[in-house]
Amino acid sequence: MAAKALSFDVGDYVVYPKHGVGRVIELQSQEIAGTKLELYVLRFEKERMTLRVPTNKAESVGMRKLSSNVTMDEALATLKGKPKVKRTMWSRRAQEYEAKINSGDLVSIAEVVRDLFRADDQPEQSYSERQIFEAATSRLARELAAMEQVDEPKASEKILDILRAAAAIHNK
């Protein structure tokens, strides 16, 4: 039974789990080691990176279209929840957070953002916490920006506004 391959068109925004939101800029055919390959050429502007993904591998690497509005709403609702802070060692939590970010799952990324957010009146984050928080926020903001057709700073501000409002409620 053949699985229906995902199809993306030139100009489509896509999410590649390890790199976030990119855009299909070209469909290419290349012959590599005597085998003809169809490739999606993806451009990630923020990283100034181009990635070639074989069309038959797009699904197995987790490449997907932008999330639905329902999924984005669920992710934004996740930001409003009470942060869950585990008392395990930071190195273990950091690994879990990185895995969630690289999964490409919007709700998991939103959980990382929510759990690592620090309001102005809370203790400061360590350098590594801030790095992971910023990576997760950027990932979420880029997808939100692509969906709402705004720039990333505007999407980031929307996310931070939601987090600040939630912190005001949870920290009473």
From TrEMBL:
Under SUPFAM superfamilies, the record lists: CarD-like
Question: Which GO terms of type biological process are on file?
Answer: rRNA transcription
Give every CarD-like/TRCF RNAP-interacting domain span: 7-117
InterPro entries documented for this protein: CarD-like/TRCF_RID (IPR003711), CarD-like/TRCF_RID_sf (IPR036101), CarD-like_C (IPR042215), CarD-like_regulator (IPR052531), CarD_C (IPR048792)
Protein name, UniProt field? CarD family transcriptional regulator
